[in-house]
Amino acid sequence: MNSTSEKIAVVTGANRGIGLAVSRQLAEQGIRVLAGCRRPDAADDLKALQSQGLPIEAVALAVDDRGSVAALAKAVEQRFGGLDILINNAGVALDQWQSFFELSADCLRETLETNVIGALHCSQLLVPLIKQRGVGRVVNVSTELASMGEMQMGSTVAYRSSKAALNAMTVLLAKELEKDFPEIWVNAACPGWVKTELGGPDAPRTTDEGADTIVWLATLEERHNGGLFRDRAPYPW
Description:
Blueprint: E1 8-11, H1 17-28, E2 32-37, H2 44-51, E3 56-60, H3 66-80, E4 85-88, H4 105-133, E5 136-141, H5 157-178, E6 184-190, H6 207-218, E7 228-230, E8 233-234
Parallel strand pairs: 1-2, 1-4, 2-3, 4-5, 5-6, 6-7
Antiparallel strand pairs: 7-8
Helix pairs in contact: 1-6, 3-4, 4-5
């Protein structure tokens, strides 16, 4: 990792839930976090962390808008000359527990737009800034519900299919980078069932617990590349 200067991280969907916890944990390690959210002016929790002296800055980012991602990439390059960490955390779950036959094409499209195409935009436009460093980490936030071995019931099709696609993109990006950029590692993380707006109040994990493996992958010193992890251990695809 970039040890000669301050590390820079971009975290998407950072204004609440797991993204907020990831941003705080990275900042507590001295990493400057550009916390992406649609409305930085309304990101009160991020502002509170910044007021505590943590190196966190709320930045405008809508991952489903390529122009928004491009604007952030340009700003990062101009201000910092590169990037060290990208956390593709932004996501939606619009069809929780809905059956296969109830799923609408519009719901699937909207889910893919954020969960897959949003991660594509961010990776295509921000990973080149990690290439400028030569060393870095990319973490895609997935779910164990997208593991083929966990698909024992046919519900939540849009969300789970989108995360399965994100898992595939994780492997493909890792493979594409590993020859010319062997120190840029790309992995996916399962945070578990977490108490968030998406996970609901009955979930057993806190956001800090959900963020742990994501932050671990973002700051890895021991080589892991192209894998899916839960609780800091490999998880089956």
